[in-house]
Structures are given as C-alpha cells and as structure tokens.
Amino acid sequence: MNSLKLHMIQRLPLALLLTGICLALSPATARAWDGERQGLLLGIGVGAGAYSYSGVQHDLIGPGEKTESGMALAISPKIGYAINNQWALLYSRHPFLFSATDDAGKEHDMTSCIESVEVLYFLDERAPSLYLGLGAGVGYFFDDSVSNYSSEALKGVGLVGTVGYEPFKHVTAELSLHLKSPQSGATDLGVSLIVSVLGY
C-alpha cells in the first residue's frame, strides 16, 4: 500500500472529526448531541471487504477487460440527519482499498468506492436495535494516482444495502452489499463487515 493511500486513510477520521466539531459548536446543532438519534449523525467505520469485478477495462492494469476477486480494507465515513429516533438520511462513502495485478504480474493500489445518499431505519427507538439501510449514488473505480472526481476515474451507478445492529449507544456493526457498474458492461460486487462509531 503506497504512501498516498495511507495518507488518505489517516486523513479520513481527522476530516470527519473536524467537521463534527464545527457542527457541534454551531448554535443550530448545539442541542443535537443529546444521546437521542434524532438530529445530527456523524460516523466513521473500518472493517474488511470482499470484492469481485468483471469486465473492467483500466489502463493501469492492462488494455483488456479484467476479472478479479479478493479481500480489501473497507472504510465507511458518514454524516446525516435523523428526523426521529428511527429514520435517518445520510451521505456516505464506501471505499474498498485493494491491490490489482496487471498483465505483467505487477500489483497496483486501487480503490473501488460508492458515494451515496442512504436511508436508515432503526427497528427500535433506542439501542439495542437492528437497522436496515438502502442507498444509491455513484460507483467509482480508480487507481491512487487520481481521485474519484478525476476524469480518468471510471464512474457509473452504485447501490448499497445494509443490515446492521447497534448493541449500545454510538457503536454499530453492519453487513453491507455493494453493487457498482463503473463502466458499460462492467460489474463490481462487494460485501463488507464494518464496525463503526456513530455520534448523535
């Protein structure tokens, strides 16, 4: 894993922390951090993922369409708002960080990511509670020399479905299914298991 990827991983929690501090100190949201889900939500999670893609054509890993599967580091930062203690709307990112092999057998650091708007539904108003999530957005596939917003990144539709459990306040564990179509004719499937800290 190269230094750029490590730099990205290290900065994610810091960026979310600074965002959370700014929001928490503002008068409009000062009352949101009361231990009730209703209001501002801010979370960061880390875990493991398994991926399988086919039909992906990316210059760095070869001129032809590629099929590959393996394990990945999965990260899940999120921020959003709960209208009550059971329904929440979130902006979230679901990057998978892994290595892909080119035609010469050389490994390259790659990222497969969904950037989505998600709806969460908690079965109970307070922890412990199961919850369900469904999100839609953009699915990306790119190497670490560019960002997901670069014109060189592959982009398409991204969908994510989640089943999670909050055993006690502010800690969640979730199993998610990821489906991306980063370019025409390509499919990128993923499954992740992530433990998160969820502030509210």
Question: H/E element string?
Answer: HEEEEEEEE
Largest sheet: 8 strands, antiparallel, barrel
Write out the strand line-up for the largest beta sheet, numbering strands in chain order. Answer: 1-2-3-4-5-6-7-8
Strand content: over 45%
Percentage of residues assigned to helices: 10-25%
Rounded mean pLDDT score: 84
Based on secondary structure, the structural category is: mainly beta
Tally of contiguous helical segments? 1
The span between the termini is 33 Å
Number of strands: 8
Overall geometry comes to: elongated
Unreliable stretches (pLDDT < 50, length at least 5) are 1-11
Structure, described:
With 200 residues, this protein is mostly beta strands. Helix content is 12%, strand content 60%. The protein contains one helix and eight strands, in the order H-E-E-E-E-E-E-E-E. The chain has one helix spanning 3-25, and strands at residues 39-56, 66-82, 87-101, 107-122, 129-143, 154-168, 171-181, 187-199. It has an eight-stranded antiparallel β-barrel. A hairpin with a 5-residue loop joins strand 3 (87-101) and strand 4 (107-122). The two termini are 33 Å apart.
